[in-house]
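Q: What would this chain look like folded?
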Amino acid sequence: MKRATKAALLSGLVCPGVGHIWLKQYLRGSILMLLALAAVYVIFTVAFQQAQTIVDSIVSGDIPAETAAIADMLSDASNDSDSTALTACKIIFGACWLFGIIDSYRLGKELDK
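A: My prediction, written as structure tokens:
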């Protein structure tokens, strides 16, 4: 398998930046990986906070433990101010992922020549 293909697969399937690190582009790979992992951390933190709020509401009896009530509360939670930060983190992660695949493939192509 050529370096370009292997680097692109590593960046696409493992984590953004891994393909760069495999190509010995340590700084670029580390920056991509840190950005992607920071975005994932924020996404999971917001999701956990929303889930905890819903669980607390169910335990306290504010909402019944029914699917429709939980779905309504989830849709209300997605309209909060956290959704802007969540959307930004999703865009950052997607950009890191896409850039990681394309750039590691490009760098691998240069090394394959």
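Residues 4 and 106 are 7 Å apart (CA to CA).
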